[in-house]
Amino acid sequence: MKINEALKRYSLVPTRYEKLGSVSIATTNDGKYVFKDKKIDTKVLDYLKSRNFDYMPRFINDIKDDDYQITEYLTGFDIPKERQILDMIDLVALLHSKTTHYKEVDLNDYETIYEDIDNNLEYLYGYYTDVITVIESKVFMSPSEYLLARNINIIYDSIDSCKQRLESWHSLVKDKRKRRDVVLHNNLKLDHFIRNEGSFLISWDKAKIGSPVFDLYKLYRNHSLDFDFDEILKEYNRNYPLTEDEQELFFTLISMPALIEFNDTQYNMCKKISKEIDVIYKTSTLTTKKV
Predict the structure, then answer these.
(1) pTM (2 d.p.)
(2) Are strands 31-36 and 23-28 parallel, antiparallel or unpaired?
(3) Distance separating alpha carbons of residues 207 and 5, to the nearest angstrom
(4) Domain of 239?
(5) Alpha-carbon distance 28 to 7, whole Å?
(6) Structural domain tally of the chain?
């Protein structure tokens, strides 16, 4: 359905449109609204409502029947990003606290997670071994190839560290029969947080049920070099402490190096490799601290 037709269904007459990423911002006869051409899991939203978690934009349309979302347009205060991220993690902790429930699991549930991570690590090791073999066979390396070759042992060490943490996590959960699940926003980044008179999380179309670890993991992958995650984790744990096995799984996931594909310009490839090496160093420092 076209945006203007969708808006008019709710007596909103658009006068101006602005594209912002995957959403459109419409100025109407009744103020500004955000239009997103994507369906949302209403079961998750109903559960949030039942738990009195309403820190999100108000939906204008009937999201149970529509394949799109229309929400009120929110603006935030101009406050330092370091303060915003702490306000955001407080809200995430509240989200997890309000939606906590315990799920009965069997050994296969944990084994599936273990095998998925282990298989990914094996693939990463094989991938980087193949790449470095090709690079070292060349008479002249490109700048990005040389940069990777110089730092390949750092990547191998991070894979080994991740394997050790995976085994540690596995030993903690092998006899557990319950798992703590929450509603996951599942798309955490600072762009999806607004702070004004209140705090709000936006962009809920990827929300689902799962371990709180996965929200923290996605936030880390999006902002690992932007903030002091030691402080962020301390703030989160102050409001909603991770269990020992949850923390070990979180550290396992963030210790896994990214797969770097050589599919860009030399300048961009050097940036990608340098960034990943910086992330590995920062992650190593974080995971050796007692949070």
Answers:
(1) 0.93
(2) antiparallel
(3) 27
(4) 98-287
(5) 9
(6) 2
